[in-house]
Amino acid sequence: MSSRPPRAGTGAAIAGVALGAVLILAAGAAGGPNLLANPNLVKGAGNSPDAWQTQAWQEGPEYSTYRWTHEEGRPGELSVTNLKPNDARWAQSLSLTGGWYHFSAELRAQNVGNSATGASLSIMEDGITSSDLKGTTGWQQVGFYLKVGPRGADLELACRIGGFGSLNTGTVYCRNIRMERVEAPPAGAQSLFDLDKIRKESAEVPIGSPWTLVATFLFLVAVSVLGWRTFGQTLAPPASEEQSRRAPDRQAR
């Protein structure tokens, strides 16, 4: 019984398949593509990186300053320095379809106050944020998972220092900012947010039952009627005064 030698190229084909499987596994481990615009912060001009804008509660260089650092061959960095207590950030506008997203970045804090919201990566809506850094730290990875409803949403992602009603001073540095679409958060994941649920809970609702509103309306109507009657009686002269006016006329006759 004779054995045939393998055809030329068979070993290369097997190696190619194996290499492809390895690359697919590596891509899955590293996460999906970064969906942010200008994610490496290398495009732009002057101090204006493409797709990113500065925002603040209190505008003006006496409150906050902003810097974009970028060197050839290296990812760029964004930084915000609050000279006075403020909520300031670099932000990018997003239009998202429904599903789960993972937001992450490397942040570093410098002289950030401990008594208010520190340096964070956040969505500009109702406390959707990573953990915040305070004091002076080295580079740390932060992030959160966000579920967007089937109708999608327009949002703003921010590299930020300070927060709503929680103004702070100091500097935040941001780099390697990412937004990835995921099937679902992994087991044990922290910082999970459901956008539709948050918006529903924060929506204004009428206070009281319909019967309470009807009773309030009837009470106001009754007060108005009583007020007009009282006002009319005040304008009319008293009966005794009217009789005294008519008495001289009768005597003259």
In short:
This protein has 253 residues and is an alpha+beta fold. Helices cover 27% and strands 35% of the residues.
Structure description:
The protein is an alpha+beta fold. It has a domain of about 160 residues: Sandwich (Jelly Rolls), CATH 2.60.120. It is built from four helices and 13 strands. The longest helix has 26 residues. The protein is globular. The N terminus is likely disordered.
Count up the helices.
4
Shape: globular
Structural class: alpha+beta
What gyration radius follows from the Cα positions, in whole Å? 34 Å
Q: Indicate the proportion of strand residues.
A: 25-35%
Nearest-integer average pLDDT: 82
Q: What's the order of the H and E elements?
A: HEEEEEEEEEEEEEHHH
Q: By CATH's scheme, which homologous superfamily of the domain at 44-202 applies?
A: Galactose-binding domain-like
User: In angstroms, what separates the terminal alpha carbons?
Assistant: 157 Å
Question: What is the CATH topology of the domain at 44-202?
Answer: Jelly Rolls
CATH architecture of the domain at 44-202: Sandwich
Provide the CATH top-level class of the domain at 44-202.
Mainly Beta
* Strand segment tally: 13
Side by side, the strands of the main sheet go 4-5-12-7-10-13
Low-pLDDT residue intervals, each spanning 5 or more residues: 1-30
Share of helical residues: 25-40%
Largest sheet: 6 strands, mixed
